[in-house]
Structures are given as structure tokens and as C-alpha cells.
């Protein structure tokens, strides 16, 4: 009887501890659970190691790539391509989104065409990019910037289009000029949508980067994935996928952190 009471007391405490885990606690708990499950599946031999490698073999493959220098080189190349493509796409997306959101003529001319482009996946543009820009860096920048541009444009345009009329009426009643209204009312009101578009654009930059590097590349994480597939090195494939995920998550957190500070009036 005493043991049963102790179990009943312990269960709520355990549930409260899991629910109260914050900060790094929840990610560590999640990763620990997945890692434990991964180790258990591979140790039990349920799937052949050549198809589903163990965490130890993935770690050894990572060390191997780091030791021969390919990992550092590929990381630098991919990060440069993602950064340049993201920069070009985000600048064009924000600029055009501001214009289509505020200028009726530009909106009428461009919105139908841009809406038509949005469903086209990045990987479908790789052959066109290679024909236009060759197999050099230009084709990679184009694919990444195209994907980021459409996402950032859509979010910026959406934010500009749905600014509450009361904000505009209030600024005009106070005698604000068009320029002041745009800088101090319109941009701050649309800023949360713009930041959300940039954050989504970061994730899509890495997705489209891999698509661009799978063809016509001789370096980069996407190229190394293709090479690992040809040699059936699933340990390297898992390692590269984990690295890509960690990179994307880190940059996403950085953009989210920066956005919370730039758009501080939206907190809460």
C-alpha cells in the first residue's frame, strides 16, 4: 500500500518536471530520446548497418571528413553560397514586397506573375540555372536567391497589404507626411511579417542550396551528399544531413533572436 502511494506521488512530480523543462532542457531531452532509440535499433541489428548506420559510425565518418579537410572546405563553400543567395533574395524580396504592397500599378503588373512562380520548386530550376549561368557559382546563387526571394516577397507583401486602416488614419490626422507615415507607421506595422519571411527564407536557403549543389558542383555539402550516395556511404550521408540540420537550426535561432529585438513592440 505504501509503495502504491509513493508511485502516485511520484507520477505528478515527474510530469511537472517534464512539463517545466525549459531552455536547453527540452531539446536535450528530445535529442537524448532519439539518440537512445537510434542506438537501440542499430544495436539490435534490426536494420543492416550499410542502410541505417549507428551513431558511432556516423561520428567516425564526421571525424574522418574533418581530418582530411573536406568538411571544413565544404562547410565554407556552402555557407558562402547560402549567405550570398539569401542576401540577394531577401533584399529583392523586401524591396519588391514594399512596392507591390503600396503601389497599385506595380501590384497589378507583377502579382499574378509572382504568384505563378511560387509553386515552382527550386530543384526544377536547376537545369535552367545551369543553362543560363553555367556550372559555376552563378547557378547556385540564382537557385537560392530565387527561393528566398519569393518567400520574403510574399510575407512582405502580405504584411504591407493588411496594415490596419486605423494606423494610417491616425497618422494622417496627426499631419504626418507620406514619407514619415511610410517609415514610422507602415514599416513597423509590416515588420513582423517581414521578419517571419526572412526566418522562413533562411530554412529555404539551405533546402534550395542542397538542390543546387546536387548537380553541376564539385564542392559543398550537397555535392558531398551526392558523392556519398554513389559510394553507398550512408554514414557520411547521415553526418552531412545532421550538419545541415544543425546549421539551419542555428541560423534560424539567430534570425529569431534578432527579430525579437528588432520588432520588440510585438512581444507578448
UniProtKB/TrEMBL annotation:
Residues 75-259 form the ABC transmembrane type-1 domain. The keyword Translocase does not apply. Keywords: Cell membrane, Membrane, Transmembrane, Transmembrane helix, Transport. PROSITE patterns: ABC_TM1. Its main location: membrane. The keyword Cell membrane applies. Coiled coil: none annotated. It is found in: Cell membrane. The chain crosses the membrane at residues 82-104, 116-135, 204-225, 237-258. Pfam families: BPD_transp_1 (PF00528). InterPro entries: MetI-like (IPR000515), MetI-like_sf (IPR035906). It is a multi-pass membrane protein. Belongs to the binding-protein-dependent transport system permease family. PANTHER family: ABC TRANSPORTER PERMEASE PROTEIN MJ0413-RELATED, ALKANE SULFONATE ABC TRANSPORTER-RELATED, MEMBRANE SUBUNIT. This is ABC transporter permease. It comes from Halodurantibacterium flavum.
Amino acid at each position: 500500500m505504501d509503495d502504491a502511494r509513493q508511485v502516485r506521488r511520484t507520477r505528478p512530480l515527474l510530469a511537472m518536471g517534464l512539463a517545466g523543462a525549459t531552455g536547453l532542457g527540452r531539446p536535450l531531452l528530445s535529442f537524448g530520446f532519439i539518440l537512445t532509440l537510434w542506438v537501440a535499433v542499430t544495436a539490435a541489428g534490426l536494420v543492416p548497418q550499410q542502410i541505417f548506420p549507428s551513431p558511432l559510425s556516423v561520428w567516425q565518418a564526421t571525424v574522418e571528413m574533418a581530418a582530411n579537410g573536406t568538411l571544413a572546405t565544404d562547410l565554407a563553400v556552402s555557407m558562402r553560397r547560402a549567405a550570398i543567395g539569401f542576401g540577394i533574395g531577401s533584399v529583392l524580396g523586401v524591396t519588391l514586397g514594399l512596392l507591390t504592397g503600396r503601389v497599385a500599378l506595380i501590384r497589378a503588373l507583377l502579382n499574378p506573375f509572382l504568384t505563378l512562380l511560387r509553386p515552382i520548386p527550386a530543384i526544377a530550376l536547376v537545369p535552367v540555372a545551369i543553362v543560363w549561368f553555367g556550372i559555376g557559382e552563378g547557378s547556385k546563387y540564382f537557385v537560392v536567391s530565387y527561393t528566398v526571394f519569393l518567400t520574403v516577397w510574399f510575407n512582405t507583401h502580405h504584411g504591407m497589404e493588411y496594415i490596419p486602416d486605423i494606423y494610417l488614419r491616425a497618422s494622417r490626422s496627426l499631419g504626418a507626411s507620406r514619407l514619415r507615415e511610410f517609415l514610422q507607421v507602415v514599416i513597423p506595422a509590416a515588420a513582423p511579417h517581414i521578419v517571419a519571411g526572412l526566418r522562413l527564407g533562411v530554412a529555404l536557403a539551405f533546402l534550395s542550396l542542397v538542390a543546387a549543389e546536387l548537380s553541376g558542383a564539385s564542392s559543398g555539402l550537397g555535392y558531398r551528399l551526392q558523392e556519398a550516395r554513389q559510394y553507398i556511404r550512408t554514414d557520411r550521408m547521415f553526418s552531412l544531413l545532421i550538419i545541415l540540420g544543425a546549421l539551419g537550426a542555428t541560423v534560424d535561432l539567430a534570425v529569431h533572436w534578432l527579430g525579437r529585438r528588432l520588432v520588440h513592440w510585438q512581444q507578448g
